TrEMBL record:
InterPro entries: OMP_Slp (IPR004658). It comes from the Bacteria. Signal peptide: none annotated. GO terms for cellular component: outer membrane. NCBIfam families: slp. This is Starvation-inducible protein.
Amino acid sequence: MSISPAKLRLFVLGLFSVLLVGCSSLPTELEASSEPVITDYQEWLNQLPDAKDVRLGGVIAKVTNLKDKSRVEVVNMPISSSGKPDLDAEPSGRFVAYVDGYVEPLSFAEGRLVTFVGQSAGSEDGKIGEFPYTFPVMDADNQRLWQITERVIVNDFAPTYYSCRSLHCRSFHTMPRQGRVVQDLE
């Protein structure tokens, strides 16, 4: 039994599509109860107070545990289709997410990256330092705390020479190696 080249191409294309979708899929804890979900901060501000479901993320600025819920103030950063905050983007405002119950301030520490999903709940007036600020508010259904991972990529394009004597060889690099550190979220 032989497979035609057209069927083989179709199979490979389908397999590639499944792998690509699997790599960039949204974590289950960030799925909203209904679609469409607002994922853009400015769009959320423009739709207040009529906005429904929102999914936003960024850097935690402040955590306050109240009697029956916790208030998490977040410096907004754009998020990708997989819900990850963009490390290279400039922050664009702040929002407040209310989480039912107690959250551990060490887990939700200042500077930690987070993404929330929940329902829009209007806005509240507050302050950032002494500056008055109006925060858009969400009642969070779920969240994802992100870990920054780093890896080093070495660009080894320099000529390399090998000096061999008998069975022992050593390599000599004539130019310094170059590399870069790549950050990713998990």
